[in-house]
Every structure is written in structure tokens, then in C-alpha cells.
Structure to design on (341 residues):
């Protein structure tokens, strides 16, 4: 339920409504907008008729039910767009941003060369996996703490904030010590104990969409984070499984536009995992931004043919610089043909 407070509601009236919501058995989430405060009452075990009586409380303008199953994530509750601050970089504002870096951190040379190139070309956030979710247990699993140390060094040198994946609840404290943003990988989107733990983390979360999740399931996964207390969530579309076999995944552009319609959270897009093929990444990056993405995440490697993971979808440093240049050139948009009469 959304409790819309009137424009001139006092703090005392707001506090009173919060108190009553809790007494009725719901969680209260206060959202202060530019014009008015709204309070979300969420939960499944509350006494609804008592809650509805709040209509008569001083300072309350109206009560509106939230029809979507995801409540705190929904734009019904919050119309203003959320801006998530990642180590000083705002995601979700007027501008789109670029997160880039290797799939896996492999060595000091590899990471630092990539980090310098990412900064040089205008990227805002450095990505790099320390703990890798791999389909086969025989594939490279990541350098762990050694990679986290290298990411820290790369941030110190370049000033770029770091995003890296955390795979298990046990690693949350450790990874939080190093990273500016914690990535929930696609395979863990519905790892509910991990989501509950990350809801209590101090760091913003990058929530990747599972390749088999509907948009609703993706937003409900985000709801775990918000309802548990972490409002700093960025959604990431990274492709879904379809019958298409020429591409690793099918990059779901419509889901980007839809998630932005349904939710106030920022949405970024990962065309590297979304397609698995370097050749289509520039076009899909432009398309994602045109669809409303607040940023893109791309995999970059100094020598993709030697990459220990995801080489075929990684751009080399030159191709990344080229991509950045292209994205900055609006004249890339082709002109519409006009009818000749
Ligand atoms: C990654 O970002 O390298 C990764 C493993 O992504 P995903 O979880 O989307 O497969
Ligand atoms: Mn990868």
C-alpha cells in the first residue's frame, strides 16, 4: 500500500504514520520526493483493514494499493528515478556511463593495462572477476583475494571505482572491503540467502538478470534487496536463453525499456554476455542506450585470444577505444529517407 502524505504534512505526522504502519504489522519505507513524502507499507502478515483506516490520519492525502508484486522496486511507489552512487559515479541520472574491464582478473599486467585503457577511453567504472561462476569445474575459477588486491591497486592508480562479483554469503564482507559495487551474477539472481545477505551490505549492488528469468522475476529479486534495506540497486540485462544458436544469448533490448517503465531503479546493459560475440557489441551498445539504458558493461582484454574466460566476446583495447568514440558520435544515427514526389 502507498500512503501519499499531503504536501504540507509535518514530520510529526509522517513519524506517526510510520509508527502506525509498524503497529499494523507492516514494514514502512519512507520515500521523500521533491514535492511530497510517500510511505510504502509492505509485508504479508499485516492487518490490512487497520492499515486502511490510516486514510483518516492527519497529514494523509490518500492510500493507493500497489498492484505490482514487486512493491519497493515499482514506479507506482516512486516516480522519481533512483540515482545510485558508485564510488562517486552516479548511475541513473541524465548521463549514461560505461563499466568495462576483463571478464576475469588474470594478472597484474593484464589488469593494469586494461584499467589504463578503460580510463583513457572514458570508461567510468572498472569491472573484473575475482570469483568466477564457471559452467565447468575444470575452467579457470578466478584468482580470489589476489585479484581483489590487484583491483584495489588498479583503482588507486586510475581512480576508477571497482565492480566485482560476489558468489557466496561467506565472501560478502571480504569483497565489500575491496569493491565499490558488488555484482550478483546471472546464475545467482535467485540465490535468496545471498540476496538477503546483500540487502544488509553497505555497498551498491549490480543485479544481473538470470538467463531464464522473466522481467517480473528479475524485479522480484531486486525487491529482496530493497525490502531487506539496500536501496542502492542497479539492474543489468545480460541476455536470455532462446532457441537462437548463433549467439551465446539473446540480448533482450525490450526488457531494458520495460524494466525502466516498471521500476525507478537504474538499468544497465551487458552486450558482451548478452551476445557472446564481439562483432555485434558496438551495434548492441548503441541499441541499449537508445532503449534507455543508464549504462553499458563491456568486457575488455589486452589480448582476447589469450583470455582465461570469455575471450570471444572481449574487445581488445583498440576496439574498446573505437567503441567509446562511436558511442559519443550522434551522427552515427542514419538519416531517414524522405519520399521523393
Ligand atoms: C561476468 O560478468 O563475467 C559474468 C559471469 O556475468 P553473468 O553472471 O551475467 O554470466
Ligand atoms: Mn564474463
Amino acid at each position: 500500500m502507498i500512503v501519499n502524505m499531503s504536501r504540507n504534512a509535518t514530520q510529526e505526522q509522517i513519524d506517526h504514520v510510520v509508527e502506525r504502519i509498524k503497529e499494523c504489522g507492516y514494514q514502512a519505507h519512507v520515500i521523500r520526493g521533491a514535492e511530497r513524502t510517500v510511505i510504502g507499507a509492505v509485508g504479508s502478515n499485516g492487518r490490512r483493514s487497520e492499515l486502511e483506516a490510516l486514510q483518516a490520519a492527519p497529514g494523509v492525502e490518500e492510500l493507493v494499493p500497489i498492484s505490482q508484486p514487486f512493491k519497493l522496486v515499482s514506479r507506482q511507489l516512486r516516480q522519481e528515478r533512483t540515482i545510485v552512487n558508485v564510488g562517486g559515479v552516479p548511475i541513473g541520472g541524465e548521463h549514461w556511463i560505461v563499466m568495462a574491464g576483463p571478464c576475469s582478473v588474470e594478472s597484474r599486467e593484464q589488469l593494469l593495462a586494461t584499467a589504463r585503457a578503460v580510463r583513457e577511453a572514458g570508461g567510468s567504472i572498472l569491472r573484473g572477476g575475482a570469483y568466477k561462476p564457471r559452467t565447468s569445474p575444470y575452467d579457470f575459477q578466478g584468482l580470489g583475494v589476489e585479484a581483489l588486491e590487484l583491483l584495489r591497486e588498479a583503482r588507486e592508480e586510475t581512480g576508477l571505482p571497482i565492480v566485482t562479483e560476489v558468489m557466496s554469503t561467506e565472501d560478502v564482507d571480504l569483497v565489500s572491503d575491496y569493491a565499490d559495487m558488488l555484482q550478483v551474477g546471472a546464475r545467482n539472481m535467485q540465490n535468496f540467502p545471498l540476496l538477503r545477505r546483500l540487502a544488509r551490505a553497505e555497498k551498491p549492488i549490480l543485479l544481473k538478470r538470470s538467463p531464464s528469468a522473466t522481467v517480473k522475476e528479475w524485479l522480484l529479486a531486486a525487491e529482496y534487496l530493497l525490502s531487506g534495506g539496500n536501496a542502492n540497486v542497479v539492474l543489468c540485462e545480460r541476455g536470455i536463453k532462446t532457441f537462437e544458436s548463433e549467439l551465446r544469448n539473446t540480448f533482450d533490448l525490450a526488457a531494458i525499456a520495460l524494466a525502466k517503465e516498471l521500476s525507478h531503479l537504474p538499468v544497465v546493459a551487458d552486450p558482451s554476455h548478452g551476445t557472446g560475440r564481439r562483432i555485434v557489441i558496438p551495434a548492441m551498445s548503441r541499441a541499449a542506450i537508445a532503449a534507455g539504458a543508464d549504462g553499458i558493461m563491456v568486457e575488455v582484454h589486452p589480448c582476447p585470444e589469450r583470455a582465461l574466460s570469455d575471450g570471444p566476446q572481449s574487445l581488445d583495447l583498440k576496439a574498446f577505444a573505437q567503441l567509446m568514440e562511436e558511442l559519443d558520435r550522434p551522427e552515427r544515427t542514419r538519416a531517414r529517407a524522405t519520399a521523393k514526389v
Q: What stands out?
A: The longest strand covers residues 27-32. The first helix runs from residue 11 to 23. The domain at 2-64 is CATH 3.30.70.1140 (Alpha-Beta Plaits).
